[in-house]
Write a structure and sequence with these properties.
Shape: elongated
Number of strands: 13
Largest sheet: 7 strands, mixed
Helix content: 25-40%
Number of domains: 2
Order of helices and strands: EEEHHEEHEHEHHEHHEEHEEEH
CATH architecture of the largest domain: 3-Layer(aba) Sandwich
CATH class of the largest domain: Alpha Beta
Strand content: 15-25%
């Protein structure tokens, strides 16, 4: 979704969103719109069950002279207690409603543009779709909301804040994309390849294959993946944005691209959800992208072990003993306890 800034309403906007607080009180930024609409907003919010409570939405038909399809009143409740996460949450709720009613380009008037950037950020996150493999999409399921324009007289600092939030949204989107992929397209080597693309934003990425891991004595991770035809990978991502000598923060993510349980096979019902067993590694990868893109002043290293836990003639057996890189031995009683071995 595109988020734009303007000092006047864009001609191609089809929807205006205005904020209404508790007690049906219009925000100051909504009053000029209400005046232009001949008082349609203030009259509408005084009727029915709309009270301006947090998350309440009301669609209002504007006069033809405004050239709009609709005005949407969004209830905020007690706005005085809002934190950024509250504005993001409300933006997400509004985004879902706007998409449902077919809004395409939404303009939001505001006298508090920096805080409304949080609202737009939440709307952007809520607009995420993963339709990569869909061949047919019903009209009612199609995503329509593609642009939000924040309209304010004073835009000081807004561009910089939207850029920071945009980098965060890109990291979240990367994580969501990775987690949504099926296991036949996101296997360990493909995961490692995608993680390697973070070098484009300044992350130093190093990938170890099975031969190097065996040389280093990483028997626990290798044991989990030995039943798969897909080669296991260990990916290290480093972002050095802090000062020389600053401490490093390490983040480790479990990247089991598919977990059947191995020889200790899981029940068949719901096993398709085991493609999500790499979500921890997906989070680490998205985080590293966001940190680097934002130029975070921190030293962070992310490590992900990418494997498949599959049954085969070569799979790890219950009762096997593996040796970790530290020299610690582990007896594997249940091969479905693979996560702790990958993270070890």
């Amino acid at each position: 979704m595109e988020i734009a800034l303007a000092t006047s309403f864009p001609d191609d906007a089809d929807t205006i969103v205005v904020a209404v607080g508790e007690g049906r009180q219009l925000f100051p930024s909504a009053e000029p719109v209400d005046s232009q609409a001949g008082g349609a907003i203030s009259r509408a919010v005084k009727t029915g069950k709309f009270k301006g409570n947090k998350g309440q939405m009301m669609d209002i038909l504007p006069p033809e002279s405004m050239g709009l399809e609709r005005i949407v009143a969004v209830g905020t409740g007690d706005y005085s207690v809002y934190q950024p996460v509250d504005r993001q949450y409300l933006g997400g709720m509004a985004s879902a409603h706007l998409d449902k009613i077919g809004a395409r380009h939404v303009a939001i008037p505001t006298s508090d543009v920096l805080n409304v950037c949080d609202f737009a950020h939440g709307a952007s996150l809520r607009s995420y779709r993963f339709d990569n493999y869909r061949t047919k999409i019903k009209d009612e399921d199609r995503h329509t909301l593609t642009k939000i324009t924040l309209v304010a007289d004073d835009l000081t600092g807004a561009e910089e804040k939207l850029a920071r939030l945009g980098h965060l949204a890109d990291g979240v989107t990367l994580t969501r994309d990775l987690v949504s992929e099926p296991a036949n397209t996101l296997f360990p080597t493909e995961f490692a390849r995608r993680a390697s693309e973070l070098s484009a934003v300044g992350v130093d990425v190093d990938v170890l294959g099975e031969a190097k891991m065996a040389e280093l004595g990483m028997g626990a991770l290798l044991g989990v993946g030995q039943g798969s035809e897909r080669e296991s990978q260990l990916v290290t991502m480093r972002w050095q944005g802090g000062a020389e000598g600053d401490p490093w923060l390490a983040i480790v993510g479990k990247g089991v691209c598919f977990d059947t349980g191995g020889i200790s096979l899981k029940p068949g019902a719901g096993m398709e959800e085991m493609k999500f067993d790499m979500a921890g590694a997906g989070c680490v990868t998205g985080l590293m992208h966001a940190l680097a893109a934002r130029g975070a002043k921190a030293n962070v290293v992310g490590v992900i072990g990418c494997v498949e836990n599959m049954p085969s003639h070569n799979a790890q057996r219950p009762g096997d003993v593996v040796t970790t890189m530290s020299g610690q031995t582990i007896e594997v009683i249940n091969t479905d306890a693979e996560g702790r071995l990958v993270l070890a």
